[in-house]
Amino acid sequence: MNRRTPKGKVAMDCRSLKGESGDESPHSKGVNRRGGHCPFWTPLLLDAILGENRSRDQASANHVLCSASCDLRKEPALDLGLKDKVILVTGGYRGLGKEICRGLAAEGAKVAVNHRRSPDEAEALVRQLREAFGAEAAAVVGDVSREADVAAMFDEAEARLGPVEGLVNNAAYCPVGPTVDLSVEEYQQALNVNMTGTFLCSRELVRRLLAAGRRGRIVNISSQAAFRGSQSGKTAYDSSKMGIVGLTISLALEMARHGINVNCVAPGLMYTEMLAAAIDADPEKYNRRVPLGRIGQAREIADVAVFLCSDRASYMTGATVDVSGGLAMH
Description:
The chain has 11 helices and 9 strands. The chain has helices at residues 43-50, 56-60, 95-106, 119-133, 147-161, 184-212, 225-228, 235-255, 273-281, 283-287, 298-309, and strands spanning 86-89, 110-115, 137-141, 164-169, 216-221, 260-267, 270-271, 296-297, 320-323. Mean pLDDT is 83; it is low at 8-75.
């Protein structure tokens, strides 16, 4: 995958097959497409890079420093089949949604960035997607909890980018406070945005796909809070996210014979604008709750959502994927 690589560059901006501290990293042989570590190079390819004639064992024992200007991989190592596919991301202008939009654009998708009332942020992201990745992108306004808005949002996306083939239901509302103080209005708003919004957007895409006889992908964003609950007063949010898991399974069963795959991502603790202040105040408080020992970055969750939008996830449907650094094991 050629991920997060701006147009005109390649995913070769790497430092070493060791971790940045100099210690062997568990990610050393993984692909960090943002320039942290080398992709998984075979020893023979390392020989070719270095121009040295050494054995496989010798090559694997060496640590290679690669220049950011290296231009050895013209084609993606793993084609996700997303080029020119139109994907709509609700709440795509910030946080996890923004990273999902970036990931899709990096894979060549055409991205519709939904917002409700943040045109400046949405348009800024659209410009970034165009300039950094050469992607076609458009900001589309709409309240996902309103039926008429959802239809208009899809109409606008199709008029500007083409027929929508994929959907990421990312928009969310999260009132925080003790349940005893939670108003019916706030609780209902969380259900309207999180549950009803996911339903309305999914139904709209399914209707269009079935009418056109096309296949498609739907990715819903739930949360580990759906399974674990919260101690910080998020009753409305947590219950709505569990509802999304049930909706995913039911819709996946119904749509499987039509070639429409429906999956779900359940992130754990994640560093976004919404939680940044609390995490920055006491990072260790949060880090020690995660088996991997750190808070997740939004781009790490986004990578999974992008994969589920792709042809490479063609044999997955009805699944809820845990992306929580191991929280689900506790």
